[in-house]
Amino acid sequence: MSKYSELKQQAYEANMQIPAQHLALYTWGNVSAFDKDAAVFAIKPSGVPYPELSAESMVIVDVEGNVVEGKLRPSSDTPTHAVLYKEFALGDGAKIGGIIHTHSTFAVSWAQAVREIPLFGTTHADHIQTAVPCTPYLSREAVQNDYEKETGNLIVSHFRERKLNPEEVTMVLVGGHGPFAWGGTAEKSVYNAAVLEEVAHMAMNTLQIRADQKPLPDYIIEKHYSRKHGPNAYYGQK
Questions:
Q1: pTM over 0.90
Q2: What is the per-residue DSSP string for 165-201?
Q3: In this predicted model, what pLDDT tens digit does every residue of 185-203 receive, in sequence order?
Q4: 5-39 exposure pattern, b = at least 16 Cβ within 10 A, e = fewer
Q5: Phi and psi for 67 in degrees, rounded to 5?
Q6: I need a labelling partner for 238 at 20 to 30 A (CA). Which of 77, 91, 150, 230 fits?
Q7: What are the residues whose beta carbons fall under 8 Å from the beta carbon of 1, sequence distance 6 or more?
């Protein structure tokens, strides 16, 4: 039995949630599960339909993008995951244990418009306290260099420029491309991707109803976020 069996199982179960949550058609999505101590992650093999997946088919990759274990080629987005884990998950106190990328309809629509998703309501504020960020397009040079790796570099540089904390802002749109999300586990990353898709849908509907709608006031944002996060959170059961 592989020493990464548990990690592979986590990745498999999370990937099976992509079609279950209607986050992608065909093979248009992938989830990875990260082991911080070993600095490796399990990820979906490239182009394999979800019904054909198994825990054993997951591929183990290190943060440099090298295949450590697995018979199949890993997802084409593997270099992006590797960059994000290396930059966001290996620092002291970092708690990112899973990353997801999909082509869910409403999130992609905002990405194609190269527009961040405004924070209009409490559903959004329950999860992050900012607009969902959207990167600019990749440069011509980046696309011609190492497209998937440069996608990760673009996300990292955008977060640095905007002074965003990936522990708090757990989702992003890549301009012209689509959404990435992450969380403490692979399962949580899928949850955040589903939240992102729903928030994208709600925001689009809001602007159709009222094109000049303003963002939610800061005091409401703070109240709703703090109910679920931080030392004084009181939502749910202890």
A1: yes
A2: -TTT--EEEETTTEEEEEESSHHHHHHHHHHHHHHHH
A3: 999 999 999 999 999 999 9
A4: eebbbbbbebbbbbbebebbeebebbbbbbbbeee
A5: -70, 125
A6: 91
A7: none
Determine contact, residues 222/168, Cβ cutoff 8 Å. Answer: no
Tokens of 78: 């593997």
Catalytic amino acids? 126, 235
* pLDDT tens sequence across 198-232: 999 999 999 999 999 999 999 999 888 888 887 87
